[in-house]
TrEMBL record:
It comes from Paenibacillus abyssi. This is DeoR family transcriptional regulator. The lineage of its organism: Bacteria, Bacillati, Bacillota, Bacilli, Bacillales. InterPro entries: Carb_Metab_HTH_regulators, DeoR-like_C, DeoR_HTH, NagB/RpiA_transferase-like, Tscrpt_reg_HTH_DeoR_CS, WH-like_DNA-bd_sf, WH_DNA-bd_sf. The keyword Ribonucleoprotein does not apply. Signal peptide: none annotated. Residues 13-68 form the HTH deoR-type domain. Coiled coil: none annotated. Keywords: DNA-binding, Transcription, Transcription regulation.
Length: 266
């Protein structure tokens, strides 16, 4: 049974848990008194947080606190440069398949991510409008003569090279688009699309909300994985583009959701 929590604000609770995971991953071990002081909440609140995070397999509770676990953490996110070199061949094949879904006159969003960056590099120079919240993607698109680029403003996530926050959300609230090409840290059948950062999740949720089609670019290593925050239910994804590493059982289960699945070849 959970102890009575002193913090009743669910948004702050999720932000605090996200920060706890980062502290544990950075330090290897943290103690309850340290977290109580850091967040200015009661020991009962911290113990409940640690219990919840252990249930999600984000940390491991130890005497008096919590320690890091060796398996990949769902609250952990690599920096942009580290992601660039991971599964690059699969990402390029996925990007090539995604490019075939873009038509003359489309208004699209390219979500921040290394696979969507690969997509930006190979777009045809046709009459389309592309909304981006990623600095590197915007730079790659600036030399296209026929592509109109709309850069979404907001707070800069410096080591992730993307914009987030209330200004970005406000701008998006007045917009409708044909397609969004999404990136995710995990996709599972019970949680859908997930990402480690709460603020990034809010932007991604808005992308899905304002788009007619939500197209997820996701290599097979991320399928069946959960990260910290959900930004789209499985049913909200209209198309999944992945590589040949996807398990047949996963392929069938995704198709049963009504989602179109494109598996790259090569």
């Amino acid at each position: 049974m959970k102890e009575i929590e002193s913090d009743s604000n669910p948004l702050f609770s999720e932000e605090r848990k996200n920060e706890i995971v980062k502290l544990v991953n950075t330090r290897g071990k943290v103690l309850v008194p340290e977290l109580v002081t850091h967040f200015n909440v009661s020991p009962a609140t911290i113990r409940n947080d640690l219990r919840d995070l252990e249930t999600l397999r984000l940390i491991k509770r130890a005497h008096g606190g919590a320690i890091s676990i060796e398996t990949p953490k769902v609250g952990f996110e690599q920096f942009h440069q580290e992601k660039m070199v991971e599964n690059i061949d699969q990402k390029r094949l996925i990007a090539k398949a995604a490019s075939k879904l873009i038509e003359e006159g489309d208004i699209i969003i390219l979500d921040t991510g290394t696979t969507t960056l690969e997509l930006a590099k190979i777009l045809d120079d046709i009459n389309i409008t592309v909304l981006v919240n990623d600095i590197d993607i915007a730079r790659h698109l600036e030399d296209y003569k026929n592509i109109q680029v709309v850069l979404i403003g907001g707070n800069l996530r410096k080591k992730f090279r993307s914009t987030i926050g209330p200004f970005a959300l406000k701008m998006l609230s007045d917009i409708n688009v044909d397609k969004v090409f999404l990136a995710a840290n995990g996709f599972s059948f019970n949680r859908g699309c997930t990402t480690p950062d709460i603020n990034q999740a809010e932007i991604k949720k808005k992308f899905v909300e304002i788009s007619n089609d939500a197209i997820l670019l996701c290599d097979s290593s991320k399928i069946g994985k959960n990260s910290f925050v959900q930004f789209a239910a499985p049913s909200e994804i209209t198309t999944l583009i992945t590589d040949q590493g996807i398990k047949q059982t996963d392929l069938e289960q995704i198709s049963d959701l009504g989602t179109k699945v494109i598996v790259t070849k090569g």
